[in-house]
């Protein structure tokens, strides 16, 4: 991957999120809308439906989002735009979320903080490894203190 490249989340990688969000919103929202039930059940199901809709909206946002990586920093464009310049990087966190007990399944999430805000990208992003590599170089150049979990995850990716 070369610098100054536009990155994105491919639709097949987001298909599961679209499916979960839609099924969750329908399964919890339709009973609230179509029946006259017990108030506390409707409030509970309605709350879950709102969370599922929020998740679905975030998935659409991620789908339409573009990430620009270059030698000056990382920029998001889409519904919410944000940028973090490498020379202004204040914090870097790389987390691993497992989906299986034996830690064979899961995803990574990179969080970068700068004076203008924060950027979160996950490992489904095309070019994720290049983003992590560039962020790690910037963090080292700025002598940022990285958490033990971030260092372990960088080691897992072969960055340390």
Give a brief rundown of this model.
The chain is of the alpha+beta class. 46% of the residues lie in helices and 25% in strands.
Give the key terms.
2 domains, 160 residues, 4 helices, 25% strand, four-stranded antiparallel beta sheet, single chain, three-stranded antiparallel beta sheet, 46% helix
How do the helices and strands line up, and which of them pair or pack?
Blueprint: E1 5-7, H1 11-34, H2 39-64, E2 66-70, E3 73-77, E4 82-85, E5 91-98, E6 106-114, E7 117-122, H3 128-141, H4 148-156
Antiparallel strand pairs: 1-2, 2-3, 3-4, 5-6, 6-7
Low-confidence spans: pLDDT under 50, at least 5 residues?
none
For the secondary structure, the number of strands is: 7
How much of the sequence is in beta strands?
A: 25-35%
Q: Summarize the amount of helix as a percent range.
A: 40-55%
Question: What's the number of structural domains?
Answer: 2
The biggest sheet, with number of strands, parallel, antiparallel or mixed sense and barrel status, is: 4 strands, antiparallel
Order of helices and strands: EHHEEEEEEHH
Number of helices: 4
Protein architecture, described:
The chain has 160 residues and is of the alpha+beta class. The chain folds into two domains: 59 residues; 90 residues. Helix content is 46%, strand content 25%. It contains four helices and seven strands; from the N terminus they run E-H-H-E-E-E-E-E-E-H-H. The strands form two sheets. Strands 1-2-3-4 form a four-stranded antiparallel sheet. Strand 6 and strand 7 form a beta hairpin. Helix 1 packs antiparallel against helix 2. The longest helix has 26 residues. It is elongated. The mean pLDDT is 88.
């Amino acid at each position: 991957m070369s610098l100054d490249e536009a990155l994105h989340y491919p639709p097949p990688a987001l298909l599961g999120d679209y499916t979960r969000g839609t099924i969750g919103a329908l399964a919890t929202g339709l009973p609230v809308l179509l029946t006259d039930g017990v108030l506390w059940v409707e409030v509970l199901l309605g709350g879950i439906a709102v969370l599922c809709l929020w998740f679905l909206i975030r998935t659409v946002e991620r789908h339409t989002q573009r990430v620009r990586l270059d030698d000056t920093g990382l920029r998001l464009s889409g519904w919410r735009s944000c940028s973090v310049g490498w020379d202004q990087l204040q914090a870097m966190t790389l987390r691993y979320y497992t989906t299986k007990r034996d830690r064979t399944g899961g995803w990574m999430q990179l969080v970068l903080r700068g004076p203008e805000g924060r950027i979160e990208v996950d490992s489904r992003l095309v070019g994720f490894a290049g983003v992590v590599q560039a962020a790690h170089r910037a963090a080292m150049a700025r002598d940022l203190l990285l958490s033990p979990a971030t260092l372990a995850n960088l080691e897992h990716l072969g960055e340390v």
